[in-house]
Amino acid sequence: MFIEPQLGRSNKPGKSGWIEVICGCMFSGKTEELIRRLNRALIAKQRVEIFKPTMDTRYHDQKIVSHSEREIRSTPVDFANDIVLLAGTCDVVGIDEAQFFDDSIIEVCNTLANSGKRVIVAGLDMDYEGKPFGPMPHLLAIAEYVTKVHAICAQTGELASYSFRLNANNAKVMLGEKDSYEARSRQAFFKHLRKPKS
Asked: Is 97 a catalytic residue?
């Protein structure tokens, strides 16, 4: 379990910020872990702002909701740069589904951390083809703390790191749940991986 390196509000000038990334496949508990960390920051009476892409309306238009139905308020944004403006003077910034933002999310996270904020980012590290997803590889590289969580393979019961798409849709981004995706182990994922049409 991740233990926060610093809890409590720091009013010291020039306080140090950092970036934490929570990554993994679908159904691995990324959002659950993000909510857990944000709730602990709230208990510590830190000022917290939380964001998600506007396009993610699977469970709720505004709240971040985990597959196990834990939820926390958030602000949907169309563009990553809006996060810097909306974060204001908060101590902690939470960002869910970071893979859906463009590469500007990288500079946004650096800007927030450099201004002394704790930045907690959750997202899929790989897409449905098992390839690095959007800005996530770069975020993993610049983060001070990285947590990779795993699901359970729907085929083998082993640890799963891959998100297997159950239909033939070749779109890079396709929102869906258990009707469209399942977690797979390496062996089960590559055994049934369909090659996308060129």
From this structure: yes
